[in-house]
Amino acid sequence: MSGDPLGYRAKFGVVTPSVNTVVQPEYDAMRPYGVTNHIARIHIPEKPIDGDVGFQELVDAIDRGLDDAVQRVLCVEPTCVVMGVSIEAVYRGGVGAARVIERRLNTRFGELTLIHAADALPAALRALGVDDGPVSLVTPYMPDADAHLKAFVEEIGYGYQQAIHLRAPTPLQISHTPEADVRAALTELAAGRPRAIIQFGANLSMARLADEAERWLGLPVIAVNTATYWHALRRHGIPDRREGFGSLLLRH
Questions:
Q1: Which of 45, 59, 158, 226 is the least buried, fewest Cβ under 10 Å from its Cβ?
Q2: What is the helix (H) or strand (E) element at residue 229, kind and residue range?
Q3: Rounded distance, CA 107 to CA 129, Å?
Q4: What whole-number distance in Å separates Cα of residue 28 and Cα of residue 53?
């Protein structure tokens, strides 16, 4: 418990790329009373993502700026640090890469709790009763990211059925992806009847759309921001249910 008058249950230190306009409002919309979110920005350039090389440069830029952002947000003495970015650990090698990041941050800053997609997504699948079988993905990335995402899905113990990549040309433009394009992708993926659909890309607004999509598609739709924030809440014993963000935030 924190002595902070607003964050008396938990203070979440959130690090997210400088061009991300979605993480902060979506996390705030899911925030229960007594929990506060405190944002630090990871500076990255706004430049075209040109194939696998360009995507690797983006991931490298996030990694270079991560430690400084964590250092800034630690000034508020947060309960934990939440990675409001879904691709870094996954693209670099999944759960193993996430552990490397954790060790690096712990070595530099002392013991801290790091919440990230590499842990949150498998926990979310299990919470929704998806213990095996194929899953499909919708992402804002270029198709070059496919092999990395497939490796992550298989590492956490699931089959990789299909992915639709919506090809946002720059990191900022991810947030400008038309909702109609996301809806069309979800509908196409659902036709293959995967056990679940996972959305990657923390700058792609999906928290509320996932709630609607679950009703019309009849299967779990996991938005990465929802999964990450849910995981942060549950890791810290905060059981609050939140309507309007899909079935995950209704689960303990």
A1: 45
A2: helix 224-235
A3: 36
A4: 34
CA angle 155, 160, 163 (to 5 degrees): 125
A 10 A CB-CB count for 46 gives 11
Fold: same for 10-118+226-250 and 120-223 = yes
The CATH topology of domain 10-118+226-250 is Rossmann fold (3.40.50)
Neighbours of 96 (CB within 10 A): 11
Query: What are the DSSP calls for 164-195, one per residue?
Result: EE---SSTGGGGG--HHHHHHHHHHHHTT--S
Hey, what are 11's tokens? 């203070």
Over residues 157-177, the mean pLDDT reads: 96
Strands 159-165 and 196-199, by their bridges, are: unpaired
Locate the domains of the chain by residue range.
Answer: 10-118+226-250, 120-223
* Count of Cβ atoms closer than 10 Å to residue 93 Cβ: 16
- Name the phi and psi angles at 222, rounded to 5: -110, 110
What percentage of the chain exceeds 70 in pLDDT? 98
Enter the pTM of the model: 0.96
User: What phi, psi does 4 have (nearest 5°)?
Assistant: -65, 135
What amino acid is encoded at 26 in this protein?
A: E
Token couple for 96: 């193993």
Question: Which residue, 136, 151, 123, 107, is CA-closest to 115?
Answer: 123
Query: What is the number of other CB atoms lying within 10 angstroms of the CB of residue 196?
Result: 23
Question: Which pair of tokens denotes residue 38?
Answer: 């405190």
> Model confidence over 168-217: pLDDT tens digits?
999 999 999 999 999 999 999 999 999 999 999 999 999 999 999 999 99
